[in-house]
Amino acid sequence: MEKTDVVEHVEKSSINSPERNHFGDVKLVVDGEVVLVPTPSPDPKDPLNLPTWRKWVLLLIVSAFGCSSVVLASGLGAIFTNVVQSYPGEEARAQDLMIYPALFMGVGNFISMPFTPVIGRRPIFLISAAVLMASSIGCAYSTSLSTHIAARNIMALAAGQSEALCPTIVEEIHFLHERARKLSWFIAIQTTFVGVFFCTSTFQVAAWGWRWWYGFFAIWNGLVFLFVIVFGTEPLYKRPDEAATGEVHLSVDAQGEYHTDEEGSTIVRVTTKHGVVLDPVRYGPRTWKYDLKPWSKLGEWRDVVTFLKDVVVGCCHPLLFWLLLLNGAFLGIYVFQATTFAPILIPPPYHIPFTSLGYIQGAQVFVCLIALPILGYGSDALVKWMSRRNNGLFKPEYRLPTLAIPAIAGVASAIIFGYAAASPAQWHWSAIAVPFNGVYFAFLGANIVGLTYAADSFPLKTASNFVVICAGRGFIAFGLSYAVIPSVQSLGYDGTMNIEAGMAAGLSALGIGAYFCGPALRRLGERYFGLGASRGHPSTSGV
């Protein structure tokens, strides 16, 4: 291969060019072409160079895993009235079956994600799928409420990987300009299957009993485990830090070889029209033997401690702390409503049949029909349009305007749900069902915007920042949902929802401040929080 083939689109520039601001701001559009961020390498084993069909297969696998995780962790609401009949006299304690998984999903992220910079994402994904399968069997064969709760808590440890690990995998195999729509596809596929299972769960339980409900997902997760073995290639890849900006600086030695060099004056920008040329001779080909390796040695064991430090530091940064509070607020409202909607709709005055409850949660499929174009394709189209208006320069804050629609819908839905639940005789049953799905739409918005904004703002700390948001919101949701019964008893449904809606509205409004103050806060993160350097371990954005 000719040396010039490696550098398809280059410019001569100083490393101190005005275009090089700080991490997060990148030149996304050059001469009408979209720059590939992060910069892919000529290595065929680079996950960014996977063929499109392999990326879609991996996307489907993580979606299938996420589907079972969501249904098992939060889908018990539709069949809860049937499950609780197995534990007479323990109805109040049975609420722990739905409440504790939110906590343990967050704990699962803290336990497993720190090991991914060392051994890779693939082994953690394999172990999580196996544990999810085994714990489903444990739930099916539980002999008491205590063993049932214990099995569900173990299940939640594995299911938690659907929150941080799965989005990280999706993000690492795609470029910046397509992240939002790929994350939206991940959530849309996951939610479509979730909606189908919500619709069928009540019929499954009515016909087979709730134990076979777990049995079905044990089989499902067994199949997911097999697909992960075959197609779940390792998505983590070492790159120079500056590849996260879409600009790799190279220097040329006496033999004409290119080397990564921060002082080099040749800037490499790979674009959608001028792609990278693969070099299997230098790097070796991608083989099935390589893809089937159960784990890879990608870092040092001290990187586990470094990852945990990054999580702690991320929790202290104003932008990331705001994102986890925002996600936690909407997730808390959703968990509250998922816990209470069935007991509200089954008795008078609504008399909704038990077998019809699944249709209400199944309506989340239609939520995806709204979320995918607005939060996915809409977000990516908006950032490209705004970047072109800004002389091709992308800023992560361009992700934030798409938060407005789901935030308004979520706050309004929470208030309506509260008043309808407090006075059911005065409200139609749809005042419970529609707001329930409206809050889910708001959570999707907070989730997609939060993850893409965090990944774009601090691309070298994506995985640890995802843990901050996903695990942190789980703890917040646990705290809010654990107070469901006491708050309803003291404040009523309307009072509880008004308070939580007010918190969500206030946190959403802070997005306006984040849009204008975000660049300064990102500079603060790079200078004082160490969020702009990889600290020696592989970048979690695939860099």
Automatic annotation (TrEMBL):
Pfam families: MFS_1 (PF07690). It is a multi-pass membrane protein. The keyword Phosphoprotein does not apply. InterPro entries: MFS, MFS_trans_sf. One of its GO terms (molecular function) is transmembrane transporter activity. The chain crosses the membrane at residues 56-85, 97-118, 124-145, 183-206, 212-231, 319-346, 358-379, 400-421, 427-454, 466-485, 497-517. It is found in: Membrane. GO terms for cellular component: plasma membrane. SUPFAM superfamilies: MFS general substrate transporter. Signal peptide: none annotated. Keywords: Membrane, Transmembrane, Transmembrane helix. Gene3D superfamilies: MFS general substrate transporter like domains. This is Major facilitator superfamily transporter. It comes from Cercospora kikuchii.
